[in-house]
């Protein structure tokens, strides 16, 4: 198919990375069994890294970012994925070194495509996007480890962010008492509206010399990494678990073994990118039914391609809040 389409494309210009709308050709998309007309994408921290030229995310430019996409299958050579059906694609190499959801079309392997859960649509799926999927995986891991509301409060760090806000609402919906840890004092009201019982500042996780602190959280979802994660581990009750998925506060983790060997605390790594498609399907299915986060869905903000640049820059500065959907229409 040699049809033109629009994409928000990032180019290298004198060592700088600049994104703008371009007209491209479907024939130039990478090989793959499934061609998808993308109606919606979602904004993630990783997209901001790709758009700013981070070579750990995207090696070659020009490049179309967008690690999430949802839309209609227009061509498929796979028996599993029907033409005309709606699909969700998140993670794997999408938007990293494969043209991503910031373009109106993507071509990907069939093994990357999750059929849209019945009763759901592309925009709703992209309100959650990779961030929501990751929040769901973090909560699922806590549940698998036996987390229950009666054990006590669950902390969520980076609570106003895309992953954190979904984790707050989902945990509250499942009956947990949520303590939201946030650097944005002006988000106290919105975090409480999502279901947080208490909102505390990031100073709850500033560096302390002691290797263990008073255990106050039964479990936790950490989306920031670095020093705050190390401090969180010191405050988890015996037998509790911390799902760890992010690094906005840094990739280093300086801790002692004491939370692990004296309190039996579990540190659970969460990856949403390279996991089996079935694990993604399980979480999408839950969000489309029992785990629906109605407040997150109602408060999502839609933007067009022209607003991508500013929105991605806000991500890099840690100023982003809530969920942002890219609408290609
Ligand atoms: P956001 O930028 O939306 O949210 C991150 C939040 O962390 C911010 O809103 C802010 O919340 C807080 N924060 C920002 N900077 C700092 C800092 N220096 N120290 C402490 N807290 C900070 O990002 P996402 O929610 O989309 O992603 C969160 C992390 O999860 C990222 O590192 C991302 O790469 C990672 N991620 C990992 C995935 C995986 O598969 N493992 C998938 C998706 C994301 P507040 O102001 O409320 O404190």
TrEMBL record:
Residues annotated as domain Enoyl reductase (ER): 19-326
Give any Pfam family that matches. Answer: ADH_zinc_N
Q: SMART domains of this UniProt entry?
A: PKS_ER
Family annotation (InterPro entries): Acrylyl-CoA_reductase_AcuI, ADH-like_C, ADH-like_N, ER, GroES-like_sf, NAD(P)-bd_dom_sf, Zn-ADH-like_protein
Top-rank lineage group of the source organism? Bacteria
Q: What is this protein called?
A: YhdH/YhfP family quinone oxidoreductase
**What phylogenetic lineage does the species belong to?**
Bacteria, Pseudomonadati, Pseudomonadota, Gammaproteobacteria, Pseudomonadales
């Amino acid at each position: 198919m040699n049809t033109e389409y629009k994409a928000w494309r990032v180019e290298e210009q004198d060592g700088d990375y600049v994104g703008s709308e371009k007209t491209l050709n479907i024939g130039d998309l990478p090989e793959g069994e499934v061609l998808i007309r993308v109606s919606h994408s979602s904004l993630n921290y990783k997209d901001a890294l790709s758009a700013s030229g981070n070579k750990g995310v995207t090696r070659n430019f020009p490049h179309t970012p967008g690690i999430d996409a949802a839309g209609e299958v227009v061509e498929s050579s796979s028996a599993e994925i029907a033409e005309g059906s709606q699909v969700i694609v998140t993670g794997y190499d999408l938007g990293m070194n494969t043209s991503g959801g910031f373009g109106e079309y993507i071509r990907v392997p069939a093994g990357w495509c999750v059929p849209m859960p019945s009763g759901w649509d592309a925009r709703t799926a992209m309100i959650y996007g990779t961030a929501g999927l990751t929040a769901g995986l973090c909560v699922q891991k806590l549940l698998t480890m036996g987390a229950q509301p009666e054990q006590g409060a669950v902390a969520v760090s980076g609570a106003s962010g895309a992953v954190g806000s979904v984790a707050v609402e989902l945990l509250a919906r499942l009956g947990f008492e949520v303590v939201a840890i946030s650097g944005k004092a002006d988000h106290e009201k919105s975090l409480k509206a999502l279901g947080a019982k208490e909102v505390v500042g990031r100073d709850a996780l500033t560096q302390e010399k002691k290797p263990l602190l008073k255990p106050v959280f039964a479990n936790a979802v950490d989306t920031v990494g670095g020093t705050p994660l190390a401090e969180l581990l010191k405050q988890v009750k015996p037998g509790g678990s911390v799902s760890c998925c992010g690094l906005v506060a840094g990739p280093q983790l300086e801790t002692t073994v004491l939370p692990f060997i004296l309190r039996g605390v579990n540190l659970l790594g969460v990856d949403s990118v390279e996991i089996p498609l079935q694990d993604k399907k399980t979480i999408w299915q839950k969000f489309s039914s029992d785990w629906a986060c109605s407040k997150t869905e109602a408060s999502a903000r839609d933007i067009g391609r022209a607003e991508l640049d500013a929105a991605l820059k806000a991500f890099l500065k840690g100023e982003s809040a809530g969920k942002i959907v890219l609408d290609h229409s």
